[in-house]
DNA sequence: AGTTGTTATTTTAGCGCTAACATTTCTGTT
DNA sequence: AACAGAAATGTTAGCGCTAAAATAACAACT
């Protein structure tokens, strides 16, 4: 049988296969398969003969064949806006640590914040028949939603909770509540002419602003002129620019909530250049509480979000589902913490 | 044939397959395969009938079957130290953009800076029979090197060039030269008691320091007491700490080269707290020139490295190799640029 | 020795797709 | 009308593995 692979019509590249190992070890290929994937079900004797043969031949199993025969891929597809964003790279690390420990591969795809890209990415990933899927956020194209519902695999929606009925599982925080908490904090601190800076306005960012603005409005402190947003990707440099825009439009602003820490760093740097004292003349707050926020001068008041944890928990839920467990609580709100520091 | 899939002994989950589409469209399954993967070779008529059938049935192709039959996986394995590091997330983005545009999947694995993890990751990835492999750096375990050499697929070693004979293809910069360039710049600027701060001392970081120190030594300005390194992961906070260590050991230090920008930010913040004026009392330089480096106060002198570009070029070389092109120049040095700014 | 139950191994039959070859259908040419 | 050559489609035979059923081997009881 093994010799057949050298015949003219064969397409094989002469790779070492299971049956090569089998004939060397003097057992059937099924036994070799078991010896490798379920060693307890094979006698010690056979197990070691197989091990020797594998080493002698340099056998490398073929995942494609395994997936096809076993009807599962041992892979998890992850659909996020962008790898190069510090927020998501932390989330991915959480997912990765759990999945790789369990022998699952990660297929990662970037939507670049486009709902359309997201749909086509999901469609593409389904061709891999992943065992599970992790997507970002609760909002998605109807077509994508339908695909996921019909796929018959566990799906986790990540980053936010509470804004819509999840497709299946859901892990995140309430961005609306987080925005609101920050607004309340600022009002409590006595700030009254409060601005908001936003960039890369994805759904989560929008909801943070909504939550923030609603509280301001309830307190009679909402002023449209102080809301400055752009759809450009957010960068430190952009933070400085947006501050300039805000101060031109409303020079008497006494506090500013930045939709993420990067913008806030830019604001702090720009204030240093303009000799605006923080927080005396202008209070500044950020979002996500990246590592540098505790170190910058002045240290940055921010909302700490459990990024790594979200990834970890999402992956764990998926794993439990794949193990056949029923998940009693399909929606997990991991909460946030407002870290009050010098800047506000 | 198609009806066979509903027989008792079948393991299929009742998925829609190529031959289901074929019988609906009234053609053979091979024709459907062609209509989907090589549309030019099929008449417009058949093509649209197939398209309709695919939509009507909700057909999702099976990559595992495709890989197995076609003897290629349309995937590229990428082995890097850590996704959650800004340096590598930029590199990955470059790889991702090229690969996904060409229909290739990325399998990403983190070594967490361990040579052992790297080896086992490579072994694991080879079971996917990826069409190509991208690994970080020129140093790796002999076993890993052997695996790669024997795998018969194109391999790109990424991030650094010039330190060893590459296995196959190689894209990066000379970290040694970059370190040396920074040392020369600092000496030219008149600094004489120059320190070095390093963390997460991977091979690249070590070589940057070697290049830097060699130049100092040649100029008679090397002082071991001013080299402060740790194997801890580098963070902004750690930068401040290491500066403290350096100044305790050598208080008269007049300039400091940080092995990456994160450490440099930490140094700048710590100097602000200690009221050390930059660059008058202490000059500071970083490495990688992250986006924030141009915005921080004082703006940070750093070595700009083409991170995204490295990823892009590596992936492109791989693609060209997979297209059967011969690559005339297997080693590509993308170079670096020293960005002189206020901090030094 | 005969029956039963348990464990270890082999046999059989695909998983869903595509390479390679074979055949048919459609041009255009003389 | 006859033919060659190109283009479109069909047929056959796996790719390398595992689920399920079948069998063999072994221990544990009557």
From TrEMBL, chains A, B:
Molecular function in Gene Ontology: DNA-binding transcription factor activity; transcription cis-regulatory region binding
Gene3D superfamilies, sorted: 3.40.50.2300, lambda repressor-like DNA-binding domains
Domain annotation HTH lacI-type: ranges: 16-70
SMART domains tied to this protein: HTH_LACI
Location of region: Disordered: 1-22
Keywords linked to the UniProt accession: DNA-binding, Transcription, Transcription regulation
Database matches in InterPro entries: HTH_LacI, LacI/GalR-like_sensor, Lambda_DNA-bd_dom_sf, Peripla_BP_I
Pfam families: LacI (PF00356), Peripla_BP_3 (PF13377)
Domain of life: Bacteria
PANTHER family: HTH-TYPE TRANSCRIPTIONAL REGULATOR GNTR (PTHR30146:SF2), LACI-RELATED TRANSCRIPTIONAL REPRESSOR (PTHR30146)
Record's protein name: Transcriptional regulator
The species this protein was found in: Marinobacterium nitratireducens
